[in-house]
Amino acid sequence: MKTRPFGQTGWDVSEIGFGSWALGGQWGPQTDDQSTKTLRLAIDRGINFIDTAAGYGDGRSEKVIAKTLNAVADVSPVRLATKAPPAEGPWPPSPYCRWQDRYGAAYLRENIQQRLRNLGTDCLDVLQLHTWTRAWNDDPQPLLVLRQLCDEGLIRYVGVSTPEQDQNCVVQLMRDGLVDVVQVIFNLFDQEAAAQIFPVAEETGTAVIVRVALDEGSLTGKYDRDHQFGSDDFRQAYFAGDRLERTVDRVAMIRQDIRDFGLQDDYSLTDVAIKFALSHTAVSTVIVGMRSPEHVKANAAVSDKADLPAEFLQQLRRHNWRRGVWYAGK
């Protein structure tokens, strides 16, 4: 497993990170025993960066991770990033939301204490605000609260997970030195982060976590136009209406590119998607959702494959798809 510097933290993290949303549910049936076996294998395969959140099963993912890490305490350090959600209100926060109502100091302190309890630690490696709004950029008090918690020894590094509707809102936060880490969407269909977020991250030494590298599974190529998601699977809404049909057609175009370049024997579609997400030098780690040992074996192996040829990467850029944001329902 190859590693990369995690911003200016001094950490070297596995370039393939463990995305743990499924450990909390919402991706179909998942037992804690299955989650534990999957996570342990990931650590055995050299994955030393895990991303989770309070909202992944109302803390269930965090608790499973804590239990698993306690059982493998003798392994090399594993860096763990979690997220605090805003208090009740619109997601993402609207331009009219006040930070006092969504990320007030008392609320944040209470929430961070719950993260510490769930993860069984006295200091969080990385605490990310799970969403944000540009409306708070000029008065970013929630981030200043987190800085105070760093001074108190409860958090090591502070980050923001971008709102899908306005990922570039973190550019000012990076330039103002308010965040150590940003988590962004970057994949074959959504390449906007390459325009400004990645260059500014390199300028400022900000660590970059890439999420949704596989577009919630579509870039594995495992769905056909008629695929049906279970009622307990959030992708039922993500690919609502004709979204899945349109996506499958786009995925077929990527498959054709792989064949045209004669790379089908060396890279699967999943390999290409992950390698593309890793292709920018600003990226510290790409977190990939893993629910089973089979997922771990396949995803961890991508790190050992050669980088994609430059000409092929150039061709893949044409798949940038300005489809809008699907989470809120286009």
From TrEMBL:
Protein name per the record: General stress protein 69
Ranges for domain NADP-dependent oxidoreductase: 15-319
SUPFAM superfamilies recorded: NAD(P)-linked oxidoreductase
Molecular function GO labels: oxidoreductase activity
Top EC class for this record: oxidoreductase
Organism name: Crateriforma conspicua
One matching Pfam family: Aldo_ket_red
GN (gene name): yhdN_4
Keywords, sorted A to Z: Oxidoreductase
CDD domains assigned to the protein according to its UniProt record, in alphabetical order: AKR_AKR11C1
EC number(s) per entry: 1.1.1.-
